[in-house]
Design brief:
Structural class: alpha+beta
Largest sheet: 4 strands, antiparallel
Number of helices: 16
CATH class of the largest domain: Alpha Beta
Bound molecules: (R)-mevalonate
CATH superfamily of the largest domain: 3-hydroxy-3-methylglutaryl-coenzyme A Reductase, Chain A, domain 2
Shape: globular
CATH architecture of the largest domain: Alpha-Beta Complex
Helix content: 40-55%
Number of strands: 10
Number of domains: 4
Length: about 425
C-alpha cells in the first residue's frame, strides 16, 4: 500500500503519530510510548517546541554539558556544549584547565561584515547598466529605510552596494553585492528582507532577477583565537619533542586535504556544540567555515602552529556569523540559559568564546593523536556507553573500568567480561 499522504500537516499531533505507527511500525504500542516519552510534561513548553518546526511529533534529546575553566582575554567562562560525541566536553574541559594555568586564551574579532546578493541576468549594454545602477543606488538604499531604521539605531545597517559583472563566469550574469553590519543579531531575516526590497526597486524590463539571498560565506566576519607559552611550560617529559610533533601535525593538515578535513572536523566538534547550545545556526557556521578553509583553492587546516625561539604558538582563524539576540536565542529557554551562563555576551564576545572552544578541541585532538593516540580516550568513554547499554550498576561499572584500565576496549570484550562478573 502506498504511503503517500495528502494533508499530513493538517492532522493533529496524535493523528500524525497514529498514522506513523500504523504505516511504519505495525501499530506496536511501544513505538507510541517511546515517542510520547519524550514529550515535555509542561504543555506550554512542549507547545513552544512544537511550533519551532512543522510536523513536530516529539523531541530529540541531545546531551547538554558544560566545560568549566575557560579563561579568554582574562575573563573566566563556563562554556555550554550540546553534543552527542562522548569525549568532546571532557577534552574541552581538560584543555581549558591546562591553558588557564598558562595565561589562558586570547581572542580578537577581526571583522564583522556579512554579505548578501541579488543575482540577476541582463543582456543589454554594460555601460548602460552601470549608469542605471549609479543613478538608482540612492533609491535602493532609500527603499530599505523602514527595514534598516532600527538596525541603524543599534549601529548596523547596509555598508555598501556594488554592481558586479560576472559575465565571464556565466553568460549575462550580474549581481548586486551588498555588505551588511548586523551587530548582535545573526541578521539572516534582516539581510534577506533588505535584499528582496533592493531587488524590487532595482528591477526593470531589461533585468531578470533570479534570486535575492544572504551568503553564508562570511570571510569578512572573522575571529582569531590563540594560545601561546614557552615550550618548556608545555610540560611532559619532552616538551620540545611534543611541540615539534604537534607543529608537524598541523603542517600536515595545511598541505593534505584528507587530513585537513578531519582536523577541521575536530575543530567543529567544539564550535558546533556551543553554536547549538546558544541557539545559533550550525549549518550556516559549518558551510562558512569549510568554504573559508578552501579560500586559496585548496582545502586546508583552519588552525596554525609555530614553534620558534622557545615559544609555542597555536591559533585559529575562522569566520563565524553569530547572533546573541533574535531567532532561537531568545525563543529557546535553554539557548537563553546558555547565554546567561556566558554572562550575556554580545555577538563579538560570543564569536571569541566559540572560536576558543574550537581551538581547545583541536588542541585536545592533536595532543592525543601525537602522543597516546585517539582511541585511548575515546575507548574510555565508549566503555561507559557500552556499560550503560548493558544496564550496568555503579559497582559493576567501577569493576569494569578497573579491569579495562590497561586493556583494549572492544564491544565484544566488554560484553564478555560483563557476563563474567554478572555470574
Ligand atoms: C573526532 O570526532 C575528531 C578527530 O578525528 C579530530 C582530529 O583527527 O583532529 C579526533
Amino acid at each position: 500500500m502506498s504511503k503517500i499522504i495528502s494533508g499530513f500537516s493538517k492532522l493533529t499531533k496524535e493523528e500524525k503519530i497514529n498514522w506513523l505507527a500504523t504505516n511504519f511500525f505495525n501499530n506496536q504500542p511501544e513505538i507510541i510510548r517511546t515517542i510520547k516519552q519524550y514529550w515535555n510534561v509542561d504543555e506550554k513548553l512542549q507547545q513552544l517546541h512544537d511550533d519551532f518546526i512543522e510536523n513536530t511529533i516529539t523531541n530529540f534529546y541531545m546531551p547538554y554539558g558544560v566545560a568549566p575553566n575557560f579563561v579568554i582575554n582574562g575573563k573566566e567562562y563556563v562554556v555550554p556544549m550540546v553534543v552527542e560525541e562522548s569525549s568532546v566536553v571532557a577534552a574541552a574541559s581538560l584543555v581549558a584547565k591546562f591553558w588557564s594555568k598558562r595565561g589562558g586564551f586570547h581572542a580578537e574579532v577581526v571583522s564583522t561584515t556579512k554579505i548578501g546578493q541579488v543575482h540577476f541576468m541582463y543582456t543589454g549594454d554594460k555601460q548602460q547598466l552601470q549608469n542605471y545602477f549609479e543613478a538608482k543606488k540612492v533609491y535602493l538604499l532609500e527603499a530599505t529605510k523602514s527595514i534598516t531604521k532600527n538596525m541603524e539605531k543599534r549601529g548596523g545597517g547596509i555598508l555598501g552596494i556594488e554592481l558586479k559583472d560576472r559575465t565571464e563566469s556565466l553568460k549575462d550574469y550580474y549581481q548586486l553585492h551588498v555588505a551588511f553590519e548586523t551587530v548582535d543579531s545573526m541578521g539572516a531575516n534582516f539581510i534577506n528582507s533588505c535584499l528582496e526590497t533592493i531587488a524590487k526597486e532595482f528591477r526593470n524590463d531589461e533585468t531578470e532577477i533570479i534570486m535575492s539571498i544572504l551568503s553564508n560565506y562570511v570571510p569578512e566576519c572573522l575571529v582569531r583565537a590563540e594560545v601561546s607559552c614557552k615550550v618548556e611550560d608545555l610540560g611532559g617529559k619532552n616538551p620540545q619533542g611534543f611541540a615539534e610533533k604537534f607543529e608537524q601535525a598541523v603542517q600536515i593538515a595545511e598541505v593534505e586535504t584528507y587530513r585537513a578535513v578531519t582536523h577541521n572536523k575536530g575543530i567543529m566538534n567544539g564550535i558546533d556544540a556551543v553554536v547549538l547550545a546558544t541557539g545559533n545556526d550550525f549549518r550556516a557556521i559549518e558551510a562558512g567555515a569549510h568554504a573559508y578553509a578552501s579560500k586559496t583553492g585548496q582545502y586546508k587546516s583552519l588552525s596554525h602552529c609555530e614553534v620558534k625561539n622557545g615559544m609555542f604558538r597555536f591559533w585559529l582563524e575562522i569566520p563565524l556569523a553569530l547572533g546573541t539576540v533574535g531567532g532561537l536565542t531568545s525563543l529557546h529557554p535553554m539557548a537563553k540559559l546558555s547565554l546567561d551562563l556566558l554572562q550575556n555576551p554580545n555577538a563579538k564576545e560570543l564569536m571569541m568564546i566559540i572560536a576558543v572552544t574550537g581551538l581547545a578541541q583541536n588542541y585536545a585532538a592533536l595532543k592525543a593523536l601525537t602522543t597516546k593516540g585517539i582511541q585511548h580516550g575515546h575507548m574510555k568513554m565508549h566503555l561507559m556507553n557500552i556499560l550503560n547499554q548493558l544496564g550496568a550498576n555503579e559497582a559493576e561499572k567501577e569493576e569494569m573500568i578497573c579491569f579495562f584500565k590497561d586493556k583494549t576496549v572492544s564491544h565484544s570484550a566488554v560484553v564478555e567480561k560483563y557476563a563474567e562478573i554478572k555470574k
